[in-house]
């Protein structure tokens, strides 16, 4: 039983993972060395010969006048090859080295030859006179009737492969030894308090916050960690109770009308899916605290703050989802009034001034004239906020400029609002998907910046309630979102 527990320990798993990874990498590199290296070497040499033959053919075509012998000599010296040119009577026109003539004459003897490829009037052969003398011989018929021969000496490569494999094995053994030492040092640092914290966090992962860590009189790192986990557990318990209360309120609303039943199923499906990420983060950072991956107090406090932040995000996500569901099923009454859209946009820009300055974004917006619209000002404020927030998050420098352009345009009975930001285009396959609940083109960046994936879905729901158009356009250096608003009657 003790042996089985050791196999399940962090030390053994860390050691095994590192060793297996190193072993597989070394094996893959050895396989690549043996299978690919020699073939690639011959391919590279073959390609050089074929390209050079094409160049020689161009020399004799006479389209451009060359000092041909000088060119051939330069090519032979540059590429470390031998070149032989024969005319139609097999007289020598050019020869860079007499050795190539001997090589061609020796082909009639029992040498080991292999045709590598043929192309039109060109043949490339691999010739092996003996183990230490192997070369490529290309023969080609030129457009003017001449015969061209190119000999490229191939250096032995098998010995190089063997040396490389031996070096990889030595490196692999050293890395396995280092992995064993690191695993032992990390795993042997912690004992009983860690096991107790492990049990508590396992219960927390199952949303059971009844257990608490017993704080001792010693003010060491473990006690500080335990105190932080206790505080985190208290706050998580309050948050989860609030989530459950919100869910209960939702279920009560669902029972009132039959069509809300579909909303309930969709809500539970979305929440259960989206809660996996924050709960996984909570569990991951909690396990990090348990394994004490960071020994300083500031890092441990950061881990606890991340867990609390994810709990708050879960609560905010549920509230926004409730609002979205009611909009989608037209359970919200709109209080339409006439208001100045320009003033609303100015106020939203003012609220975002700090982050706009932090990101060094230039805002272009003409606030010199009133633009009156008729709608529920609270919901249009959400639309503008979501568009502007989205533009700020994804604004990137293009051609030395990072900016956001907000403008309005009169279209018959509508006022169209545009919000443009410099940055990367949205791929065509994502354009329709981004208006759905929880859909994010870059999920990791949205989470880091606090997004819930519901903002554009809210815009869609609000516009659908007004039967107004919305969408986006990709430009060469950015993206522009738009939506229509009703004019006052």
What does this structure look like?
Helix 2 (10-61) runs antiparallel to helix 3 (68-79) and helix 7 packs parallel to helix 10 (297-328). It contains 15 helices and 13 strands. The radius of gyration is 36 Å and the shape is flat. 56% of the residues lie in helices and 18% in strands. The model is unreliable at 443-450 (pLDDT under 50). The chain has a six-stranded antiparallel β-sheet with strand order 2-1-6-5-4-3, sandwiched between helices. The chain folds into three domains: 14-159, Beta-Lactamase (2-Layer Sandwich); 192-328, no CATH class; 337-486, Heat Shock Protein 90 (2-Layer Sandwich). With 489 residues, it is α+β, with helices and mostly antiparallel strands.
Question: Can you summarize this structure?
Answer:
This protein has helices at 2-8, 10-61, 68-79, 99-105, 158-187, 192-205, 221-256, 260-274, 276-291, 297-328, 341-351, 353-358, 377-394, 443-448, 455-466, and strands spanning 81-86, 92-95, 112-119, 122-130, 133-141, 147-154, 337-340, 362-365, 372-375, 403-411, 414-422, 470-475, 478-486.
Give the overall pLDDT as a whole number: 78
Question: Poorly predicted ranges (pLDDT <50, ≥5 residues)?
Answer: 443-450
Radius of gyration: 36 Å
Per CATH, the superfamily of the largest domain is Histidine kinase-like ATPase, C-terminal domain
* The top level CATH class name of the largest domain: Alpha Beta
Q: Which structural class should the secondary elements be placed in? A: alpha+beta
Order of helices and strands: HHHEEHEEEEHHHHHHEHHEEHEEHHEE
CATH fold title of the largest domain: Heat Shock Protein 90
**Share of residues in strands:** 15-25%
What gap, in angstroms, lies between the N and C termini?
82 Å
Question: What global shape is seen?
Answer: flat
How many helical stretches? 15
Helix content: 55-70%
Strand runs, count:
13
Estimate nothing, just give the exact number of structural domains.
3
Largest sheet: 6 strands, antiparallel
CATH architecture tag of the largest domain: 2-Layer Sandwich
């Amino acid at each position: 039983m003790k042996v089985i527990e050791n196999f399940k320990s962090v030390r053994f798993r860390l050691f095994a993972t590192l060793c297996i990874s190193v072993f597989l990498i070394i094996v893959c590199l050895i396989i690549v060395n043996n299978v690919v290296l020699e073939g690639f070497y011959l391919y590279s040499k073959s390609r050089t010969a074929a390209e050079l033959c094409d160049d020689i053919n161009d020399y004799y075509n006479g389209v451009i006048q060359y000092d041909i012998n000088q060119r051939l000599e330069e090519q032979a010296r540059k590429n470390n090859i031998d070149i032989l040119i024969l005319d139609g009577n097999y007289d020598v026109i050019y020869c860079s080295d007499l050795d190539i003539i001997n090589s061609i004459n020796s082909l009639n003897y029992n040498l080991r030859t292999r045709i590598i490829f043929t192309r039109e009037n060109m043949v490339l052969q691999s010739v092996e006179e003996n183990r230490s003398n192997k070369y490529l011989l290309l023969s080609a018929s030129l457009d003017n009737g001449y015969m061209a021969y190119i000999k490229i000496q191939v250096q032995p490569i098998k010995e190089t492969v063997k040396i490389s494999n031996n070096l990889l094995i030595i490196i692999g053994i050293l890395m396995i030894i280092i992995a064993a030492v690191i695993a032992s040092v990390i795993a042997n640092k912690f004992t009983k308090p860690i096991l107790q914290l492990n049990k508590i966090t396992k219960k927390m992962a199952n949303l059971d916050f009844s257990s608490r860590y017993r704080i001792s009189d010693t003010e060491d790192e473990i006690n500080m960690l335990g105190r932080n986990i206790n505080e985190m557990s208290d706050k998580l318990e309050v948050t989860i109770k609030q989530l459950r209360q919100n869910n209960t309120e939702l279920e009560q609303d669902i029972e009132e009308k039959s069509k809300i039943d579909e909303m309930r199923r969709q809500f539970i499906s979305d929440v259960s899916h989206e809660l996996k990420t924050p709960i996984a983060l909570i569990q991951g950072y909690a396990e990090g605290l348990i394994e004490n991956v960071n020994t300083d107090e500031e890092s441990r406090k950061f881990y606890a703050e991340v867990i609390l932040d994810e709990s708050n995000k879960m609560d905010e996500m549920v509230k926004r989802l409730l609002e979205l569901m009611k909009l989608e099923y037209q359970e919200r009454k709109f209080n339409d009034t006439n208001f100045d859209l320009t003033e609303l946009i100015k106020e939203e820009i003012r609220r975002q001034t700090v982050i706009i300055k932090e990101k060094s974004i230039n805002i272009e917006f003409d606030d010199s004239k009133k633009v009156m619209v008729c709608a529920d000002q609270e919901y249009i404020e959400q639309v503008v906020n979501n568009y502007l927030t989205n533009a700020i998050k994804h604004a990137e420098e293009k051609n030395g400029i990072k900016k956001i352009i907000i403008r309005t345009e009169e279209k018959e009975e509508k006022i169209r609002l545009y919000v443009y930001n410099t940055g990367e285009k949205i791929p065509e396959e994502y354009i329709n998907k981004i208006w759905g609940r929880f859909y994010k083109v870059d999920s990791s960046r949205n989470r880091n910046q606090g997004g819930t994936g519901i903002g554009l879905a809210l815009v869609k729901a609000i516009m659908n309630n007004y039967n107004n158009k919305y969408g986006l356009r990709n430009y060469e250096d950015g993206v522009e979102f738009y939506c229509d608003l009703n004019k006052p009657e």
